[in-house]
Amino acid sequence: MENTEIDSKINMFERKIGRSSNLELLRILAIIMIIAHHYSVHGGWDIPNELSYNRIIVQFLSLGGKLGVNCFVLITGYFMINSKFNIKKFAKIVGQVFFYSVVIMLIFKLFGISHIGIRETAKSFFPIIFSKYWFATTYVELYILSPYLNKLINYCTQKENKILITILIVVLSVIPTFSNSLLEIDNLSWFVFLYLVASYIRKYQHKFFDKTKLLLVIFTSSYILIMFSVVILDVLSLRINDFPIDPTFLREMNSLPMFICSISLFLYFKKLDIGSKKIINSISLTTFGIYLIHDNNLVRSYLWEHIAKNNSFYNSRWLSLHAIITISLVFFICMVIEGMRINFVEKPAMKFWDREIESKFLNKSRNYIDRSFSQHISN
Fold first, then answer.
1. Where are the membrane-spanning stretches (predicted)?
2. Burial (CB count within 10 angstroms: exposed 0-12, middle 13-18, buried 19+), residue 44
3. Tens digits of residue pLDDT in 191-229
4. To the nearest 10°, the Cα dihedral for 344, 21, 199, 346?
């Protein structure tokens, strides 16, 4: 039986009993790591040039952010390889980004929280075009490219796909890691690569993908390597003037250890058998919204510097507790807000889409194109 037939049977089975929650749980873990990353990198810290426990804690909290991003893209590639471009889903994604971008801008403007000029207003109304959220813009670009990537993957043989992935990992990860040029790689290029990797995993069932204990060891080892590199590079950067390597450079999403870390974690969760849990799947639906709320460029500094007051806890023994409570609150509050948006905005909007746009406009357009094409052929 071909993989496409197997996947179609799996999809039908999932619709009957509910989608398996293993990768949905990974989405939740990923967004928590991303929030922790933002707690660290946007905290407005005034960090002295000395090694301390709290300095290491702040740096450790930043390590999971790009791991979370990689997992999100891998999950997308895994599910999208056997899916077609869906204009309704595309509109839903763009509409979600637009909603939070505009609503947050209006709230900040009406309450005078921040000065909103013409430039910021324009960015808020066209968030994808102006890349107000770098991840959202790159994700939309990837979604548009997905039908062509699927054709490429399905056209190539397994050997050709393997060679292509090998070339890309060398160019996009191995060389940049050892030449300290990780930030020079374009985000879309990396997302396309992860999409190809996840698609390969879905299309070709390799025995290595099922070794859960080994995968857990690989994940743990690679993550510990990244953590140790922070401490070692910290010591070197404090002792050597103009040290050329940032202590957290291995946290970048395309670093070789982070790639290994991401793949092993993804494969581990892929094999995790927890069945279908409604609560996990419901929370998972809010993860993209959680990102759009808390990492909006207007919310970002106001949240971490003025509400959470991260920097005031830098010299406190309660920093770790502050981080846990703050990250948890951001997650739960944003989850509730996104849940409300889904129920009171998105669901009515999608009903309107089905009733007015899909049935009256899109179907008529398709019928018109089909008729025109048939007439052209007959002539």
1. 21-40, 60-81, 93-113, 133-150, 162-179, 185-202, 214-233, 253-269, 318-337
2. middle
3. 999 999 999 999 997 777 888 899 999 999 999 999 999
4. 0
